[in-house]
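Tip: read the tokens left to right.
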């Protein structure tokens, strides 16, 4: 999703919003993803974690592995 300062992502289940993330999680600054590709990478990882029935929490290591600019 497009935000006023960049990009974020939304995770839905049967049209019900489960997660709406407009800023990069786990970092100190409140900033949006720089582009749609970065938001999709993290959103897809969250979705994978949910499908695996694990915590959808994103870590700094996840951001590094996905090459997300913070």
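Filled-in amino acids:
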């Amino acid at each position: 999703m497009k935000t006023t300062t960049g990009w974020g992502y939304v995770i839905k289940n049967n049209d019900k919003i489960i997660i709406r993330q407009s800023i990069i999680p786990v970092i100190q600054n409140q900033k949006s993803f720089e582009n749609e590709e970065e938001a999709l990478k993290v959103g897809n990882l969250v979705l994978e974690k949910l499908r695996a029935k694990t915590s959808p929490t994103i870590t700094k290591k996840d951001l590094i592995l996905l090459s997300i600019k913070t």
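Residues 10 and 16 are 10 Å apart (CA to CA). The longest strand covers residues 16-21.
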